[in-house]
Amino acid sequence: MLVQMTHRVAIVFDSSGTLMHTYRVAKDIRTGEMLYDTVTLHLVRRSQALVAIDTPPDVVFNHPPDQTLQQFLAENNININIGCASDDITTDDVRNMLDCGSGDAHVSDLCDVLSAVRKKCKNVLYIGTGFVIDVPTGAIEYVVCSGGKLFDDVESTIAQLKGCADIYIASGDSMRNLSVLAEHLNIPRENVFPVATPIIKERLVKDLKEHYDCVVMVGDEINDLRAIRAADVGVLTMQQCSDKLKKLCDAADIIIPDISELPHAIRKWNRRSAIDDAVIYQNSPLKTDD
């Protein structure tokens, strides 16, 4: 990994739920039930994976609604990426098992969740689609869609932090979506790590610790747990949802209700934990008060 240091502090952000308020809709393929404003990560059980479909959403509506999801992906040579998995599951595992699945999920199901998100969310920065697959059987359990919109004060918070830290994004979203976010926040593309599983996020944090004096990880969900534990300072945000697993709260060094509180929270942590003041540049937003 090439690291071009500008500062001596690195801050790694998750995107959905951390930088962006994300509205998610899932459809249970077995029952047909629509699950609104759900946490899709909580749908992933053992031996299952949450898989992102790397294609513009509008493409979906241009295909026969009765086409199976497996046919849609294969015939259009659409890339898929694992956003989160309960085990060490690869995209090759998913592709191999898709051929063995029952074919119960259709393009129409994707259209349903896309339409539900678009109806609810206006002026979103991007929309992504995906599915939850049970790898041993190849059965698609859910199709999912999410729409993301920046939380208030994200732009001003990131601008403030750039005065003292190099900013990174590590997310399960595709580069197609994250590049829009990075451009909007003026974050270099080389600092963006797409389709980042919990293991990839953890590895990124550990790699950055080889180059920076202090690495901060900011996340909001269980897929950020490993990276939060690995960071010098782990930050848990409650802005998307305040109902968090105990082990996630226990792992965090800092818990904040709003992303705008991040500079002040790190400043307080710096003062409390006696991190070397030389780590933080003079006159930066994170400078410890005398």
Describe this structure in words.
Strands 9-8-1-10-11-12 form a 6-stranded parallel β-sheet, sandwiched between helices. The protein is globular. The protein contains 10 helices and 12 strands. The longest helix has 14 residues, at 107-120. The model is unreliable at 274-285 (pLDDT under 50). By secondary structure, it is of the alpha/beta class. The chain folds into 2 domains: 9-19 and 151-279, HAD superfamily/HAD-like (Rossmann fold); 22-148, no CATH class. It has helices at 57-60, 69-75, 91-98, 107-120, 154-161, 175-185, 198-209, 225-230, 246-251, 262-273, and strands spanning 9-13, 20-28, 34-36, 48-54, 79-85, 126-134, 139-150, 166-170, 192-193, 214-219, 233-237, 254-256.
